[in-house]
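for the recovery benchmark. tokens below, seq after
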């Protein structure tokens, strides 16, 4: 029997930094961020589970998508999503990254199946420095630096172990690969994509609005 794959989509954030309400449910060119994430992941997954703010559980989604209430932090939300599936592998992808090239998701999943844990990660294009008191403190060698994105792929049992350990040890991480790394397990890095940028602040929203038309024309 082939391995079952679940897409887990945390979409329960309040969107505080954007200041426009629940971010995942905002529309770009007539399609919500959440629906965009669902469409990108659907071809690769046997099941999909989405976490929404508890007051948005009535939000209409395609029938194949299961809805659960998210937690107070992203980490708590992902733990709930994990506990809602028994798939062999999971692809965790933030609804806040609405433009997901299928090839990236496919490569992340393949690496997760091979190595147990993987994430999309983007080489740094800019010069990177450490700052101190508003001044240039020290140059960072960017050749080995990666900006970590989602999707991230895992053997479900491994990620569950990382989340359970995080609760016991009070670890906090901004993503799931960070928890697996903390467990001392390898995380494979797969080439990410600049189009996978996270919509966080009003400037990102403006960019996403402009880019949505281009993306939709290319992905019809
Ligand atoms: O806040 P941030 O943009 O880092 O959130 C990343 C993703 O995690 C978003 O898709 C957001 O909806 C989700 N999230 C969540 N539950 C929370 C906080 C964030 O599902 N409590």
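predicted aa per position
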């Amino acid at each position: 029997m082939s391995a079952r794959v679940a897409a887990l989509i945390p979409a329960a954030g309040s969107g505080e930094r954007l200041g426009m309400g629940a971010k995942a449910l905002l529309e770009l060119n007539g399609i919500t961020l959440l629906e965009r994430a669902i469409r990108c992941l659907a071809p690769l997954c046997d099941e999909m589970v989405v976490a929404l703010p508890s007051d948005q559980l009535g939000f209409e989604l395609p029938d194949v998508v299961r809805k659960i209430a998210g937690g107070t932090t992203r980490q708590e939300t992902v733990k709930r999503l994990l506990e809602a599936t028994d798939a062999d592998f999971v692809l965790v992808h933030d609804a806040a990254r609405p433009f997901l090239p299928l090839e990236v998701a496919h490569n992340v999943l393949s690496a997760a199946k091979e190595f147990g844990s993987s994430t999309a990660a983007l080489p740094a294009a800019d010069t990177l420095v450490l700052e101190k008191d508003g001044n240039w403190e020290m140059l960072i060698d960017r050749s080995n630096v990666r900006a970590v994105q989602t999707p991230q792929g895992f053997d479900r049992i491994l990620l569950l172990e990382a989340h359970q350990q995080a609760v016991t040890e009070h670890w906090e991480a901004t993503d799931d690969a960070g928890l697996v790394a903390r467990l001392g397990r390898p995380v494979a890095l797969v080439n990410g994509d600049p189009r996978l940028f996270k919509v966080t602040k009003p400037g990102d929203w403006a960019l996403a609005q402009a880019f949505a038309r281009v993306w939709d024309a290319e992905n019809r």
